[in-house]
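# nightly structure sweep
# worker-07 picked up a monomer target from the shared queue
# config: single-sequence mode, recycle default, output format = structure tokens
# input follows
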Amino acid sequence: MPYKYRNSTVLSHPFTGSRARNLVAKFGENILFLQVYMDAYGASNPLQRSTASVYNITGCYFRILNLPLMVQSMTDHIFLFFLAFTRDLKEDFHGTLRHTIVNQLKDLTINVNINGIDHHFKVLLLNIVGDNLGLNQSGGYKEYFRGDNACRICTFNYEEVCSLFHMTEDRIRSVESYDNENVFVKEKSALNDLDHFHVQDCPSVDMMHDLFEGHLKYMLPVLLTSFDNYTSVYNAISSFPFHGKEAANLPRPVQQQYLGEQLKGMTASTMLNFVRFLPLILADLNPSDDNEAWKMLLVFQEILDILMSFEITESMLQRLEIKVTEYLTSYKQLGGKLTIKPHYMLHYPMIIRKYGAIRHSWAMRFEAKHQPSTIYSGINRCFKSLCMTLATKNQYSFCEILTKMKSDNYINETIKNQQRKKFKRNEYVILECQNNIPLFGRIYDVREDGILLIFKMQTENFDPKRYCYSVKETPETIVKTPDELFVQETMRLYKHKYIRLPYALF
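# output follows
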């Protein structure tokens, strides 16, 4: 609930951002905040590629941001607004939004009984999530990323997008410019009919599509081909011993003759996994001191760690602004291809200040909600009224979840179950930080009540070349609950001594 973040000095939960704070200051804390996601996906394609667009479905989902973060990130708690054939939506996209999302959310209030007392809750849309095409479409912007109006958030034209790597407040588009100009707006968004929401005042980005399914596909070939011997690069990637959670998204190296302008064939999760460990994978190849692409990679590691962090301070945001400018400048000097996607990194600090940690406004978990539909449509093999079939199936499943949610201890039990899945033997955790140095431990046993038995590790140093901490195990043991750990994440040990942090801690 918003009151838990009333005195927060860091940007973490969406309630710590300026948008939620302003709405709470205006209406009080009895607000249910929703986050809405829209995206098109191929549910089924029985006749193969020739009719792919015929079976393309747009899914619209939402989640309740008042739920604990660990709970709302589960696909069970991402709820369906509607499913529709994409080709049907194109006929009157914003008319459909008005009759579905806007009609349901406008003036929506509910009564919630808390500890025997009825509370009147207002329901408001905090922000929308989607890929760039979807965000432009839902915002009513022109679906074109070049020319004089390349960016929906600022007034940069395409030439400036590819050459200017510093953002100033005077270049940000205003609500007035949206309402009064038709240059960059194709159609006024139906979402603006909602109270206390305007797409220009509530801009959105998605680092999953911007970076992991976008820009990094062009950046990595620049890096990988900067080494004199590509065979060594290929062998280093193919032989790297990914294990634990990282082994579920195993990156596959590409033969040099197939490595073109962009690196293809990786999902967003695999790309994230790959780029995080690249310094450790390639450090033993001894990149030369004048390898500018290698220096660029290390700068990007700093950017990535801040973006993936659950808690972001103002000093981290200032560092992010500097590093993004440094990174994009270096990337251009190396001849990398620039598109609108890396440009959006210039807007990330503003988005974080508005909505909290940016990882709470990306599409990664929402896209996982497509999977049950794609699996079921393949099994069902009936394509008549496909959207209705899939929506009905989804709601039947939701009935079971809703029944469980009525239990008084549902939230606590769900969190405990998630922690049991996350914390396993021989995983590494952060016990605490002393003088900005993380102290690690290895879980050697997990009791039935969830208590962790841990061997303490000695942190030897941070290796900037590998972008990892070097550690050594000690005989000293300690007992911890998951809630007592410094962060709620586990890590793996590589090459007998190196641990890569999951994100920036400070």
